[in-house]
Structure formats: structure tokens, C-alpha cells
Amino acid sequence: MITSARPGPYPVDEDLVRRLVAGRFPRWAGLAVERFPSGGTVNAMFRLGDGMAVRLPLTRGGAGDVAREREWLPRLAPRLPVAVPEVLGAGEPAEGYPWPWSVYRWLAGENPEAGALEDPVPLARDLAAFVAAMRGVSLPGAPPAHRGGPVASLGAETRAAIGALRGIPEEGVDCDAVTAVWEDALRAPGRDGPPVWLHADLMPGNLLVDGGRLTAVIDFGCAGAGDPSCDLFPAWNLLPAGAREVFREALGVDDGAWRRGRARTLSQALIALPHYRNTNPAMARNARHVIRAVLDDTH
User: Fold this and answer.
1) CATH 3.30.200.20 segments of the chain
2) Pairwise CA distance, residues 103 & 45, whole Å
3) Taking Cα atoms as reference points, which of 265, 271, 275, 273 lies closest to residue 295?
């Protein structure tokens, strides 16, 4: 197997994708290849012809997501109320590219944007239906969801991020207030019961909507079993206050789970902001939105 000691994201472009596709899937050689703009940091996406997408990991860590999706997406798809990625071809390392990659059926739609939803209540209900369906999946052998363990397991990373933000006063983050939210979650009751199936990365960039309604959920690289509060992210990273309550009510979220979910979403944003503020505007913008939404929610 080809290995790579290259630091940082692996450089990929249209020419590499054409060579990979031609070598592995000659029947698709000659189809147009166009990079699809994305704020994602783990994978690169390319349109292949009119009806397909090529997804290539940019880091070694992302390579494990490829195997997870190949194994679980075909089993999850019939159990979920919206479309999920369908793997059409399994690519392998070649042409100097070091990791597995996949060809998917293209899913139409656009990413919703926090603060720009025309009618967020129907979307809140759609998101709750998806989360409920994931929790209801009974497939055995689920891998652990990424960051799906106890809230306390995120503590060191979260506190380090708060410390970093204290050194960036121009971001205007109330570090004492976010610390109080984090510490409150540590006092919240834990969940009784076994882990449940989760998507575990319900960011706006992993949601597709059409006419304001949820049509697809993508990127299942973090999916697996864990604390159900992990899938409450849209309450703060996308939905405004009124729709947030609709989402909570539809899922029947108790106070302990709500506090844990809020803190998990906040933790992700606190970690993302100092890391991406100068390199990934979309990720940094959503992180700022989450921090504001969480503090407004607690006030």
C-alpha cells in the first residue's frame, strides 16, 4: 500500500481525479471533472459528469471515514427519511495518491445557512425526524461515534480552546461565560441507557435542502453509537430560537441532554474558531454563530 508522510492536507486537483477515475473506472474516463467548492476540511469533492461525485480524503485521518461509509451507508439508507450518499465505486490508492477514495451518486440541494432560513420551523421538524430515525436504527456492531463519549472527555480540548481565545481579544468571545456553560454541562445528569446510532456531525455543510426542506444528509464519517446529545448540534449551529424549541419538543429532549448537547456544540465551535479563523471563513463564521447562539440560549 502507498503511504504518505506529507504533512497537512494532501494536494488534489482535477487532473489527479481524472487519472484516478480513468485508471480505476475506465467506463467513466472522459467525463467532465470539476472541483466543488466546500468549506469542509477533511475531504475534497469533485463533480464527475452530471450525476456523480468523487470524494477524496485530504488527510490520513479522513481515510478511515471512507471505509466507515462503504460499510454502513448501504445499511443505513433504507432506514432514514431523507437521502444519504450512495457509493457507486470504491477507489484505491494510485497515481501517487495514498488513500482509498469513493465515487458517489450526486445529491442535489444546497447547504442551509444559519441566519438566512426563510421558514426554519419545517426544517426543524425534518431535522428532528432524521435524528429520531438515526436513534431508532438497531443495526448491531456500530462503531463508536466520533466524540460520542461522555461530555467530560472533551474537557482538555475545550479548555485549551478557551485559553487560546483569551489570547485573541479581537474575537470578542466572553470566555468566562462560555466556561460557565461548559462547567454547567459537567454537572448535568448523564444519560441512562445504551448508546444509540448517531450521525455525530450535523453541521450545516453536511445538510442539503431544497425549498427550505431537508432532502439529504451527507458525510457519515463520524457516524456510530454514542450519547444522543451529540446529534442536537443543529439547535445552535443552524436553527433560530423558535425553531430550536420545535426541534427540542419533537425529540422530547430532557434538561440534562439539552445541557450536554449545547455544551458539545459549543465545544466544537470553541475549538474551530482559533484553528480556522484565518484559513476557513465558513467554519469560522459558523463557530462565531454557535457561540452567540449558545450564550443567548443560556441567558
Assistant:
1) 14-105
2) 10
3) 265
